[in-house]
Amino acid sequence: MSNGNEDFPPELRRDPITGVWVIIANRAGRPSGDLEEKVLPESACPFCPTREHVTPPEICAVRPEGGEANGPGWQIRVVPNKFKALDINLPLQRQGIGIYDWISGRGAHEVIVETPDHHALMRNIPREHMKLIVDIYAARIAHLRRDHNLRHVVLFRNYRTAAGASLSHPHSQIIALPIVPKLVKDKLRAARDYYAHRERCIFCDIVEHELETNQRVAVQNEDFVALVPFAARFPYEVHIYPRRHQYDFLVMEEYEKWGFVDILQDVLRRYFVLLGDKKTGWNVPYNMVLQTAPNTAPRPGRPDYWGTIEYDYHWHVEMIPRLTKMAGFEWGTGFYINVVLPERAAGELRDVSVPAQPEQQS
Amino acid sequence: MSNGNEDFPPELRRDPITGVWVIIANRAGRPSGDLEEKVLPESACPFCPTREHVTPPEICAVRPEGGEANGPGWQIRVVPNKFKALDINLPLQRQGIGIYDWISGRGAHEVIVETPDHHALMRNIPREHMKLIVDIYAARIAHLRRDHNLRHVVLFRNYRTAAGASLSHPHSQIIALPIVPKLVKDKLRAARDYYAHRERCIFCDIVEHELETNQRVAVQNEDFVALVPFAARFPYEVHIYPRRHQYDFLVMEEYEKWGFVDILQDVLRRYFVLLGDKKTGWNVPYNMVLQTAPNTAPRPGRPDYWGTIEYDYHWHVEMIPRLTKMAGFEWGTGFYINVVLPERAAGELRDVSVPAQPEQQS
Predict the structure, then answer these.
(1) Which of A33, A76, B166, B182 is the most buried (most CB within 10 A)?
(2) Residue A203, Cβ density class (10 Å: 0-12 exposed, 13-18 middle, ≥19 buried)
(3) pLDDT of B54-71, one tens digit each?
(4) Residue A339 has what DSSP assignment?
(5) B127-145 and B254-275 are packed helices; what angle lies between their axes, rounded to 10 degrees?
(6) Among B56, B120, B59, B114, CA closest to B82
(7) Is the CB of residue B148 less than 8 Å from the CB of residue B120?
(8) Lowest pLDDT segment from A167-181, A301-315, A347-361, B234-248
(9) Which backbone phi and psi does A211 adopt, to 5 degrees?
(10) Angle at Cα A182 formed by Cα A178 and Cα A185, nearest 5°?
């Protein structure tokens, strides 16, 4: 355990009452958490072409025309997060400290720079390029799972300052953890218990129920459905599910990826028309989180029980516009207050008229 | 269940996967959730004396010199929240909707206006007045528990816009719920399980361990300890515990209330010196949440099992400075990243020199 010095390696600590794990990491130098919108000008952006040396050396990149690593010419670029929450070079250590539990901060924290265009907006990125982004998401998750010490991979996208982004250049992040977080474990257990009694996937049942009642469907295509959840925690929260049962993002078929790209951009366009800033073209601040299965690869000497996970779990994407702030009540109870009726949010998202084509990029 | 019209009664919905309850409530007209600091001038503040008619009629008040209800002369005033998240006049109804669970939004949502002084700062409120505030906290909790349909009372204080406050006049809020939230249930279960094996309170053990190791104690007095938790979720998060085992806020003795007032103001003064705005005198934005036992009063026809709660649970107050923003990673995993080592935060809070007396109010 660290002893209070300025620069300490990251670590994980478990709250003995709630069971929640916390990463303690020195991310000094990280752009600060001010509340006002901050936009680093293109000329100082570390993710822009010709400034590749500002980031740590790249992990991989898409360079259709070839070219040197860490030089320009890329279309998508994956780099380690400079202000990393976990460190892939730390040995994995577990320790009990009195009544507390501690794990060394071994893990990965990567940034996926999704386009060289500083001003690109995800809703307008060409479909073919979006498909490449989804391919990279999948490739990074697959790669990180080859380290069997990394038990869960979280892919997320924070858009704009209010959603926690510190840079405006389009990017997503990946954090690979040495444990499965409690919230994910709770969801896995609920899905397993439901399946044990019914031999049906709870998520498939939800999707079916929602398509039947059609009160909370925001948008759908052949392979995907975007729903406002029955118990949405946030106004205009949307969950995107594949229609075909699939427990893991990585079992998505190639043809389905197009449907995923389409529904994702469709939801973003609807967000923009309903909630975005028409003057600047910026969308509403949002968080996007991929919820998929943990790393089920067997570990030598540390058996895990995954049960019926291939049948009972179902990956999905959570989209959370940041219109309200969490306050004391939410922290204290894990209880949320949503001021927009989910059926109403779904209706507005469904009825809004969106351009079929991307807008002209400014 | 509501059907999408503009004005709908509040309701509670349970997420079938996570088990989390969400309040869906139309709080239209509520000051909006902008991110910039908004300070309503004193001349328009609904909580200031002579503007008593702007709030709903008062529930109770402290008027040492006497005077009419809903007129000036009060020192503390409790009113229903005008933009209420729950409604005390709704009948309690429970319903299964397909695979979902629904409860009518019966409950209470009150505002405790803590002083007539619009510009007062809690850290500087005279000790005797603070004691009255704590008495009112206890009185409201006791009163609300007399309604056996209200199963849990949450008392919280949001300070400044970044912490979710929409008005700057000093106030706390109370929400009384028809269910015990999942996070609270998880904590109760963890405490009960710990006790079952050891016949010791886990919170007492934590306090003892922390006093012994003295790495994370921020400040203490005869009856209370303020700790930075081992797995603090937020920089400078502090939990205040009574030293004597007591499962519920309402079993605190009169003499202990003074110790509670002192440690609360002490923590707030330390926050101000370390993190506050020296120019304006404003403290860092924070949330304060009282974590205490649920309503254990028996309900006719609906038995509850409270087990050893009097012995295994231990009330406490969580203080959370709002220095960072939650982002996608946190939403997705229930996992937090804290950039300040808890031992370091505790050390800074311990070592900071604070005035023993309240500052001169401006």
Answers:
(1) A76
(2) buried
(3) 999 999 999 999 999 999
(4) -
(5) 120
(6) B56
(7) no
(8) A347-361
(9) -70, -35
(10) 90
Say which amino acid occupies B287: N
User: What angle (nearest 5°) sits at the alpha carbon of residue A338, between those of residues A333 and A342?
Assistant: 130
Which tokens go with A175?
Answer: 């954090």
Contact B294, B186 (CB under 8 A): no
Give per-residue pLDDT as tens, A98-140: 899 999 999 999 999 999 999 999 999 999 999 999 999 999 9
Provide the CA A270 distance to its chain's centre, in angstroms.
Answer: 19
What is residue A64's predicted lDDT score, i.e. its pLDDT? 92
Pairwise CA distance, residues A61 & A69, whole Å? 8
Closest Cβ opposite residue A230 in set B100, B162, B290? B100
Distance CA A304, CA A321 (A): 35
Quick one: CA torsion of A25, A30, A32, A38, rounded to 10 degrees? -140
Instruction: Answer positive or negative: Cα dihedral of B2, B4, B5, B7.
Output: positive
Residue A46: Cβ-neighbour burial (10 angstroms; 0-12, 13-18, 19+)? middle
Edge-to-edge strand order for the sheet containing A100-104? A94-97, A100-104, A11-14, A21-24, B336-338
DSSP state of B173: E
CA distance B114 to A342: 35
| Cβ <8 Å between A332 and B289 | yes
Alpha helices in B21-77 (DSSP H): none
Q: Which two tokens stand for residue B197?
A: 């094996």
Angstroms from A67 CA to nearest CA on chain B: 33
Reading across the β-sheet that carries A76-80, which strands appear in turn?
Answer: A60-62, A76-80, A108-113, A171-177, A152-159, A286-291, A316-321, A238-242, A224-227, A217-220
ipTM over 0.95: no
Neighbour count for residue A112 (Cβ, 10 Å): 21
Instruction: Compare CB distances from B334 to A20, A162, A331 and report the shortest one's residue.
Output: A20
- Cβ-contact A352, A273 below 8 angstroms: yes
Among chain A residues, the shortest Cα distance to B21 is held by A335
Alpha helices in chain A (DSSP H): 127-145, 182-198, 202-213, 254-275, 309-312, 328-333, 342-351
Pairing type for strands A336-338 and B21-24 reads parallel
Q: How many CB atoms lie within 10 A of CB B197?
A: 7
Q: Is there a contact between B99 and A209 if contact means CB atoms under 8 Å apart?
A: yes
- Closest by alpha carbon to A273, among A354, A348, A346, A341? A354
B2, B13, B184 ranked by CB distance to A333: nearest: B184
